[in-house]
Amino acid sequence: xxxxxxxxxxxxxxxxxxxxxxxxxxxxxxxxxxxxxxxxxxxxxxxxxxxxxxxxxxxxxxxxxxxxxxxxxxxxxxxxxxxxxxxxxxxxxxxxxxxxxxxxxxxxxxxxxxxxxxxxxxxxxxxxxxxxxxxxxxxxxxxxxxxxxxxxxxxxxxxxxxxxxxxxxxxxxxxxxxxxxxxxxxxxxxxxxxxxxxxxxxxxxxxxxxxxxxxxxxxxxxxxxxxxxxxxxxxxxxxxxxxxxxxxxxxxxxxxxxxxxxxxxxxxxxxxxxxxxxxxxxxxxxxxxxxxxxxxxxxxxxxxxxxxxxxxxxxxxxxxxxxxxxxxxxxxxxxxxxxxxxxxxxxxxxxxxxxxxxxxxxxxxxxxxxxxxxxxxxxxxxxxxxxxxxxxxxxxxxxxxxxxxxxxxxxxxxxxxxxxxxxxxxxxxxxxxxxxxxxxxxxxxx
Amino acid sequence: xxxxxxxxxxxxxxxxxxxxxxxxxxxxxxxxxxxxxxxxxxxxxxxxxxxxxxxxxxxxxxxxxxxxxxxxxxxxxxxxxxxxxxxxxxxxxxxxxxxxxxxxxxxxxxxxxxxxxxxxxxxxxxxxxxxxxxxxxxxxxxxxxxxxxxxxxxxxxxxxxxxxxxxxxxxxxxxxxxxxxxxxxxxxxxxxxxxxxxxxxxxxxx
Lengths: 446, 206
Description:
The complex is a heterodimer of chains A (about 450) and B (about 210).
Chain A: H1 2-5, H2 29-34, H3 39-45, H4 49-58, H5 71-76, E1 87-92, H6 102-108, H7 110-124, E2 128-133, H8 138-153, E3 169-174, H9 184-191, H10 206-209, E4 216-220, H11 221-233, H12 235-240, E5 249-256, E6 262-267, H13 273-280, E7 290-294, E8 303-304, E9 308-314, E10 320-326, H14 334-339, E11 348-353, H15 358-372, H16 378-395, H17 403-412, H18 422-436, H19 438-442
Helix pairs in contact in A: 3-7, 3-11, 4-7, 7-11, 15-16, 15-18, 16-17, 16-18, 17-18
Chain B: H1 6-15, H2 18-31, H3 47-58, H4 68-79, H5 84-93, H6 98-107, E1 119-124, H7 127-131, H8 134-145, E2 165-170, E3 182-184, E4 187-189, H9 197-203
Parallel strand pairs in B: 1-2
Antiparallel strand pairs in B: 1-3, 3-4
Helix pairs in contact in B: 3-4, 4-5, 5-6
């Protein structure tokens, strides 16, 4: 990735990416140890497990996989001493279109992930953990497997790790090219060797009834790396890097029509959308103007160039006052994007310029969701296919006048009516493209 | 309520052409890749594969069924695809019914029931790669190896006549910052241009 070989931009702060892009850094354990590797695991084993959970809570770390759930709160659901087996699953199924950050951690710095997982395992009383890696990263699976062997040989994993009396082991589990497995309950079904149909919540919250019906924590690769960094920097310093509800740094993955696409690690709330595109990523290609931005992976609602958002901010006397914020002034953190009606999700920012046909773009995404629907729930199984068929025929110039309304109707009847969030993921693009770019749907009708 | 008599049953049966039943069955057999002739994979398992399989099963002390995906990967990596004997063998190894394995083979896009080309070229189809020209790139690959670009990749992998290359459009490969990308066997190729096609093909020619 070319952008990572450049020195960090002034707005960047490489924390989980610190080692991965250091000149001469290799994924073996000796190199990791030279760069301070496993120091935080040693520190953690000297702490009380509750103290670690508390640190993660105070750090305001939100999950980096897409849903953005506060990590410490999730961990708090596990009762350490309930006498049950607990499991930890690392979600390395990175498949949300527009997201490409975990691949660099898995390939370049696997020990950072293993250390983060070992710390998490100790905090949550987990003795067996799995690293679920999508099979389209075959080399990552090899690299992480080798790293696990190295860590076992050095006593960081296995029985009585570092003489602490605590046992933990972990294994790589490869997926098989199904996007749905990124959904945590689907991933658990996949790990159990079944068809990966998501489970309904309630009652199947993983922290209560997860892998093998035992309390299970599923965390994203980047999230688990942040665990190590929180112990290294301390929760106070760590949370200061971000905004009050969204601590630490985030890897923003920018792709599409910008001069320097790439993953950029930036403190949460540290840039506006405009700064990210025009400053960090070098702006659009010469002569082009901005048309649309999908700010948090393909499932996030699309934003239109020039639009403004009515949000409430705290005024000087503590009262909430209305403020209109232009698109490019939106701050890149969870709360600001939620206030704009979309989400920061997995941090996948896709930029489209004036040469792009928005119907074409939506049709591309509809094809993705039609292919990836697992088929368990009727609204999603049928609806994602209908939406794809409709935009496909509109692209071919065979659309009929009712198509936009029918598309809207289908999308409105999927969201909220399915077992998992895939229903929302496939209908939000349709709903938001229709709302923000109605003109794109009018031109291709018969 | 409909009255059923032996005579009406006879009518139904006699009106249904028996040859059609036979044709249906024959069609099913023809399209059932696992029934293709050739030696059964389960009769040719090398010792190294058995060692790997045994090792994989130990990773799942709570439930052997969890080893289904790892075993399917090991099997496909060795044989290139998974035949009916493979499904049965894996099921037996994990004390499952064959359907428990077959339902995985048919669900997950990664698993195949027929032999692919020597090199599998997977081109990313999803938005950022499409914006960077992955549709044009796929056409170029198809033309270069003589695969019909209109071939539906959901029904078997389109493979060149010489058996060297299979070409497949796949969903997001999570490398959107270096689009367009393609995964050829285990290697990711980034920022691929149409001019790179010949070079990539020659790299996997033998």
